[in-house]
Amino acid sequence: MIDYNQKYTLGELENLNIIKLGRGNVISKNDIRNNPGKYPIYSSSAINNGKMGEYGGYMFDDERITWSIDGGGKFFYRNNHKYSVTNVSGWLKVINSDILNTKFLYYLLLNEWSFKKYDYTNKAHPSVIRDDYILHIPSIDVQNEIVEVLDKFSALEAELEAELEAELEARTKQYEYYRENLINKKDVELITIGEIANLVRGASPRPIASYITAENKNSLPWIKISDTKLGEKYLKETKERVTIPGSLKSRIINPGDLILSNSMSYGRTYISKIKGCIHDGWILISDFEDKYIADYLFHLLNSDFVIKQFDNMVNSSSVKNLNIDIVKKVFIPILTIEEQEYIVSILDKFSTLVTNIKEGLPAEIELRRKQYEYYRNKLLTFDKE
Q1: What is the pLDDT, as a whole number, of residue 264?
Q2: Phi, psi of 256 (to 5 degrees)
Q3: Residue 36 has pLDDT above 50, yes or no
Q4: N or C: where does the chain have the smaller number of CB atoms within 10 Å of the terminal CB?
Q5: Average model confidence (pLDDT) for the chain?
Q6: At what angle do helices 294-301 and 140-183 cross, to 10 degrees?
Q7: How far is CA 189 from CA 184, 301, 364, in A?
Q8: What gap in Å lies between CA 159 and CA 157, rounded to an integer?
Q9: What fold characterizes domain 189-334?
Q10: Coil, strand or helix at 253
Q11: CA–CA distance, 145 with 130 (Å, rounded to integer)
Q12: What pLDDT does 360 receive?
């Protein structure tokens, strides 16, 4: 028995034969390759519910708590199923369920963990957390009631997140539908990108390295893939600057020009708001202003109408990414500037709506999580004020 007026470390609970602490086994990539299967393997990751893969064997077929030793010590609840735990993950088994509810202990540990810090120096080894966690264990009836309340909160949080993500998915599909219908018009004359624009590949970082400099009047932004964010429309700033030698003048991009990623992540297109020099991961598209507007080309280059052409040409080529010759051959509709502006006005509205939801979604989810954590902390704090 335990004294409900006392606090206990995990080590003391183990000494009382209420819980058992342990560590997983080494499971190598060769083990997984040689014994494929459907049973989950949980390892050190604090994301994806700690899952690292699947395996043909399993260590446990019961209810336990696991935690990431190398991944910051985060706890996970494992219900009764077949699974394995690697050596960079710990496990905790409740032996006496008349005294301690496993799910309650999980919630209690997760709440306490939110106030602790483990890293690659101070690792959450079983020998460490035995003494780090000092817990107040209420009666089993109180534990069961708290679990019931927190389970309902968890389910509500998951339901709200799913609703928000479903709204984003629906709006994104709506945007893509209108984009394809507005861009992929039937009975419209086509022209290649090479006929309406000038295309140049960016500069290799090797010669650029010696020209990277602090900001001065002769330097320009050095534009790399890492300076952009997926889903954004404009390139506005960079982390580094270069002093451009004469040999690289052709790699200079001006405000209003487009850059297109030449990797397999094509469709990653941006309109530049700055003057700079582009990395060789980009293809510069310029000198189209008399026939096309940049905003229309931005939507066009992200459309299935163009992406499918990229796919067909890349898949039939020995080079498995974009190059200037491929981009030049892509067909696009011939439209008046007025028609392009009309399409842009509609697609920009949908794009803004999707972007706003994307920006609002993490904030809303974070708000719900903080609300949940607040109530969890209130329920699991037993100290008298």
Answers
A1: 61
A2: 100, -15
A3: yes
A4: C
A5: 86
A6: 120
A7: 11, 17, 45
A8: 5
A9: Adenine-n6-DNA-methyltransferase TaqI; Chain A, domain 2 (3.90.220)
A10: strand
A11: 26
A12: 63
Q: Which residues, 6 or more positions from 63, have their beta carbon under 8 angstroms from its beta carbon?
A: 78, 79, 80, 94, 102
Q: Which residues contact 341 (CB under 8 A, 6 or more apart)?
A: 293, 296
| HSE toward the beta carbon, residue 58, CA cutoff 13 A | 12
**Which of 313, 286, 284, 285 has the alpha carbon at shortest distance from 201?**
284
- Residue at token pair 């939801």: 357
**CA gap 7, 382 in Å, rounded:** 10
Report residue 369 as tokens: 């999580």
CATH of 7-137, one of 2.60.260.20, 3.30.750.24, 3.90.220.20, 3.40.50.2300: 3.90.220.20
DSSP state letters, 287-336 = S-TTT--HHHHHHHHTSHHHHHHHHHHHHTSSS-S--HHHHHH-EEE---
CA 106 to CA 10: how far, in whole Å? Answer: 12
Pairing of strands 39-42, 219-223: unpaired
First to last CA, the chain: 26
Structural tokens at position 63: 């209810």
**The two domains 7-137 and 189-334 share their CATH topology (first three levels equal):** yes
Q: Among positive and negative, which fits the CA dihedral 300, 339, 234, 181?
A: negative
Which two tokens mark 31? 């083990």
CA distance 2 to 364: 41
For the chain, the domains span 7-137, 189-334
CB 157 within 8 A of CB 23: no
Cα–Cα dist 322/267, whole Å: 10
Helices of type H across 28-120? 29-34, 102-113
Contact 129, 90 (CB under 8 A): yes
Token duo for residue 296: 């229309």
Q: Contact at 8 Å (CB) between 348 and 182?
A: no
What are all long-range contacts of 209-216, with beta carbons under 8 Å and residues at least 24 apart?
A: 211/242, 211/243, 211/244, 211/245, 212/240, 212/241, 212/242, 213/241, 213/242, 213/243, 214/241, 215/241, 216/241, 216/243
pLDDT tens profile 229-242 = 877 889 998 888 88
Closest among 340, 336, 338 to 348, alpha carbons compared: 340
